[in-house]
Amino acid sequence: MEMPRVPVNLVTAKQGEILKLGHITCRIQEDGSRTDNRIGSATFTLPPQTAGPPAHWHEMHDETFLVTKGVVRFHAPDGKVIDAAVGDYVTVPIRAPHTFSNPFDEEAEFFNTYTPAFYINYFKMLAKMQEGEQKMSAEKNLQAMAHFATMPAKGM
């Protein structure tokens, strides 16, 4: 069998599509276009004292989070809280209710993956819906989630 000649791709620290999600910044590194939609990835920057999206679960994709700056608080059912620091890795499988926040006084950042990659389009939709808004709207967030097999987790 002949060796394949599939290209290896580099996204430098200055590249990637930048989205403003209210007060949160998202930099897309892989939108699935180079992986046949098998994986997508983005980096999120959370200012201090930032609430994340409404609690939810995904019906069609897994997520992972690698904290690269500060501390990110992950919220799970029954009041469970996980404070993930730099280098900590959180895996969120399909149907695992969750959300995240940065209730601390220092900026936080995480690298996020999605398998499959279609969920990247949720962030693009949300950015368009919230253009010019200073804070992320829970209502608009839930509206966008509904397009991507993401269900609200009430009572978390």
From TrEMBL:
Domain Cupin type-2 residue range list: 43-113
- Taxonomically, the superkingdom here is Eukaryota
Which InterPro entries does this one have? Cupin_2 (IPR013096), QDO-like (IPR053146), RmlC-like_jellyroll (IPR014710), RmlC_Cupin_sf (IPR011051)
What's the protein called, per UniProt? Answer: Cupin type-2 domain-containing protein
